[in-house]
Write a structure and sequence with these properties.
Layout (H helix, E strand, L loop, with lengths): L9 H9 L10 H4 L4 H10 L15 H14 L10 H8 L5 H16 L8 H112 L1
Keywords: Cell projection, Cilium, Coiled coil, Flagellum
Organism: Mycetomoellerius zeteki
Protein name: Sperm flagellar protein 1
Length: about 240
């Protein structure tokens, strides 16, 4: 068994990773290991009893990546005395520089110390894992597209709803203005009718007054003539 003085350099780490039959290419350690799936596959090869690969789904979202790491941490790493802190999980899921290299180095050292050998799966199992991961990737992509489409549709719906609300407010304001104008017009019509009736009444009264004055004037003239006639006759 290897002692506690085991040290791994980057070159040896890369050579070790390159020799592992992953279900998908591992070209960029920081990016490709960020969802914990490939780390689970490494652990499955050396500690197969502890790992159930189907529990870890390829992911693009940070939240799903964190959930994968939390499950791997709880079900596997904690049992291997390699429990991760919350900060480490955060850095791994976010692809922080050097985080995955540090974890893989610790894992490689543990493998050497434990003296365990790689349990290479049969070709059929590898193909099955590859197909399964491809199917999960396709499903994840479809799901992501659906979520994005749903988000776009919700955004458009919210914008249209806001636009409709604004138009309804404008229509409501215009309706209030129309009601006010109609009320004002009715009041003006009533005022005009009242003034017209008053003018007509005044005209009638003036006409009657004029006629009365004419009659009175005629009576005065008749009386005056009658009086003059009697005076002339008396003389």
């Amino acid at each position: 068994m290897i002692g506690d003085t085991v040290q791994i350099d980057n070159k040896e780490l890369i050579e070790w990773i390159d020799g592992i039959p992953f279900s998908r290419p591992a070209r960029n350690l920081t990016r490709d290991f960020s969802d914990a799936v490939l780390t689970a596959e490494v652990l499955k090869l050396y500690y197969p009893r502890h790992v159930e690969i189907h529990n870890y789904v390829p992911a693009n979202s940070i939240n799903t990546k964190k959930e994968n790491w939390k499950m791997l941490n709880r079900k596997v790493l904690a049992k291997l005395d390699m429990k991760l802190s919350s900060d480490t999980i955060h850095h791994l899921a976010n692809g922080s520089q050097g985080a995955v290299e540090k974890l893989l180095t610790k894992l490689r050292v543990k493998v050497l110390r434990d003296g365990v050998e790689m349990h290479k799966p049969k070709l059929k199992n590898v193909e099955s894992n590859i197909e399964g991961n491809e199917a999960r990737n396709a499903l994840a992509n479809v799901t992501t597209e659906k979520i994005e489409d749903a988000n776009v549709q919700r955004t458009i719906y919210a914008e249209l709803k806001q636009e409709l609300r604004e138009k309804e407010e404008v229509i409501s304001t215009l309706n209030h203005k129309i009601a006010y104008l109609e009320s004002s017009m009715k009041l003006k019509d009533l005022r005009i009718s009242s003034l017209a009736a008053q003018i007509l009444q005044n005209a009638v009264e003036m006409d009657q007054s004029a006629k009365s004055q004419l009659v009175d004037g005629a009576r005065v003239k008749l009386r005056s003539r009658s009086h003059n006639f009697h005076e002339d006759k008396a003389n």
